């Protein structure tokens, strides 16, 4: 009897053996002792199979890191780092499929459609940890910009994913370095900076009297 997992595994085995997706659902189903009807009971297309595989990577990573005893004590920055490190550690065991899945799509401004469901899960996770960071004061609640912080994290994920795909270092140690530097720089931008202090000071001067008079001009 076909299951979500058995179809995913059969699909991964096929594309890694043949280098391309099956020519039709009929042939794929026939070669895996199932009917077309059984396949469509779980997925509407081969693209949907790939989307589900990537989504499972996200769910497994999020579940794993949230069960860590130290998780509630982590800052938003540490939670993001934990996700990135754990995700790419998990992906090592499926590197051949991940590389195949991403490289078959032309590079562009938008992310590959196979990551659509993954992106929804990632953004839900990002919203959660960023909200905690804003509530605790770890991150700066900038008007109009704070709600876009998750977009910054998604862009950082896309960069690291492409870096990892092309990383030839032993144990992908350069990817670990890219994660550390990239996530930390991103969170530095989310936190209060001298520019925020300058803007607040300007607002204070405008609110509390003539700006030029305050400046002695």
Automatic annotation (TrEMBL):
<dbReference type="InterPro" id="IPR036271">
    <property type="entry name" value="Tet_transcr_reg_TetR-rel_C_sf"/>
</dbReference>
<dbReference type="Pfam" id="PF17931">
    <property type="entry name" value="TetR_C_23"/>
</dbReference>
<protein>
    <submittedName>
        <fullName>TetR/AcrR family transcriptional regulator</fullName>
    </submittedName>
</protein>
<feature type="domain" description="Tetracyclin repressor-like C-terminal">
    <location>
        <begin position="79"/>
        <end position="205"/>
    </location>
</feature>
<dbReference type="InterPro" id="IPR041673">
    <property type="entry name" value="TetR_C_23"/>
</dbReference>
């Amino acid at each position: 009897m076909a299951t979500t997992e058995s179809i995913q595994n059969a699909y991964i085995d096929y594309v890694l053996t043949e280098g391309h997706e099956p020519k039709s659902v009929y042939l794929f189903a026939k070669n895996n002792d199932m009917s077309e009807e059984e396949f469509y009971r779980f997925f509407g297309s081969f693209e949907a199979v790939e989307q589900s595989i990537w989504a499972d990577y996200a769910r497994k990573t999020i579940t794993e890191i949230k069960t860590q005893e130290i998780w509630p004590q982590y800052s938003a920055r540490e939670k993001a780092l934990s996700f990135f490190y754990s995700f790419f550690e998990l992906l090592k065991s499926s590197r051949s499929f991940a590389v195949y899945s991403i490289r078959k799509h032309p590079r562009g401004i938008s992310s590959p459609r196979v990551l659509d469901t993954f992106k929804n899960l990632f953004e839900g996770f990002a919203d959660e940890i960023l909200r905690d960071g804003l509530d605790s004061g770890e991150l700066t609640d900038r008007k109009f910009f704070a709600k876009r912080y998750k977009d910054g994290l998604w862009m950082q994920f896309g960069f690291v994913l492409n870096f990892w795909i092309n990383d030839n270092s032993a144990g992908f140690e350069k990817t670990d370095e890219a994660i550390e530097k990239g996530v930390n720089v991103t969170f530095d931008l989310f936190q209060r900076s001298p520019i925020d202090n300058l803007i607040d000071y300007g607002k204070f001067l405008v609110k509390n009297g003539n700006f030029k008079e305050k400046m002695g001009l």
